[in-house]
Structures are given as structure tokens and as C-alpha cells.
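tl;dr need the bound structure. longer version: we got a ligand (magnesium ion) that a collaborator sent over and nobodys looked at where it sits. i said id run it. heres the input, straight from their email, havent touched it
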Amino acid sequence: EPVDVDKITAEVLDRGKTPASAKEIELRFQGVRGLTVYGNENQLVTAVANLVENAIAYSPERTTVTVTTSEDNGYVEIAVADQGIGIEPRDIDRIFERFYRADRARSRATGGTGLGLAIVKHIATNHGGRVTVTSTVGVGSTFTLRLPSRPTDAALAIPPSVEIGGAS
Ligand code: ATP
Ligand code: MG
């Protein structure tokens, strides 16, 4: 089904509000409005929300997390940029594996399970897209979810989201 990218980012920014304000992190939106992707809205919200959750978790207090949308050559890109701890080059190829956590994250008091990015990668691939990352230790990371802006066989094969109690 067609999914309004503005709806995805609005929902993600709303979910990120509370964890961001707990660390006085500014959660910003920047970019193009009115973009459409194809697939399952709930899955796409889950994917972007996982990226924002990580950006907040792996950043110090009083930094900025920016969600950017753009269009490039038949693809919509949703990027999540942080000013956080960054990722060592030796870890960067492994963070999308299930249960993999870099040392800095592993030693954090508030631990995760290492599944978030594996789920993001799965959702991206399922939608005929991909997720990439660029990062510099001590400076920050940017994760980019790239999704086809036209209906693909992969995206159309995904069952649509069912709105419970929503208008049809
Ligand atoms: P979970 O998401 O299951 O609660 P997690 O956050 O550790 O746990 P992933 O989201 O899969 O798992 O991330 C894997 C690892 O990648 C993290 O443990 C961390 O080492 C690294 N990582 C992910 N996002 C960032 C980021 N924005 N900045 C720095 N490191 C990151
Ligand atoms: Mg995570």
C-alpha cells in the first residue's frame, strides 16, 4: 500500500519525544514533505523508530538528533543523524547482525539486546530497499533508510497495516 512518509516521521518524532527530553536531546525534522513509499506503515515506523531510539541511546545529553527526508533517483531516503559516541570501523560491518553490540554499548548500564538494527535491515530489504551507516567515533553517526518511491513487487507483496479502530 502507499505510505505517506510524513505520517511515518510524525509518528516517529512523537514516539521519540519522551526519551529525547529525558536527556535534553533536541529531536529535529528537516526535509521534503509529501513523499510516498510502498509497503507496510507499521513496519516502516518500527524501522525508523529503532534508528531514532538508537540515536538517543548512544548520544550524550544536550545533543541534537535530526531526521531528514529526501528523494534521490527513484528512492526516498529517511536519514537519522546523531552527535553521539559513534561506531568503531571494526564494528561497523557487524552492527546489523542479530545480538551484536559494540563494546561501548555493551558496557552501558542500560543494555539492549542487539536486535534493533537486525530488524531495521530486515524491514528495509523486505521493502526492496536498504539501510546504510556512516560514522565517526566521538563525532556521531548517520543511518539512512533507502526505500523505493515507486511500487515494487517486493513492497506490494507485503500485507498492508490494519488500523484497529481507525476509519476505513
Ligand atoms: P536493542 O535495539 O535490541 O535494544 P541495541 O541498541 O544494542 O539493542 P541495535 O539497535 O541492533 O542493538 O544496535 C547494535 C549496536 O550498534 C549497538 O549495541 C551499538 O553498539 C551500535 N549502535 C547502533 N546505533 C548506534 C548509534 N546511533 N550510535 C552509536 N552506536 C550505535
Ligand atoms: Mg537499538
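gonna send this back to them w/ a short note. The mean pLDDT is 93.
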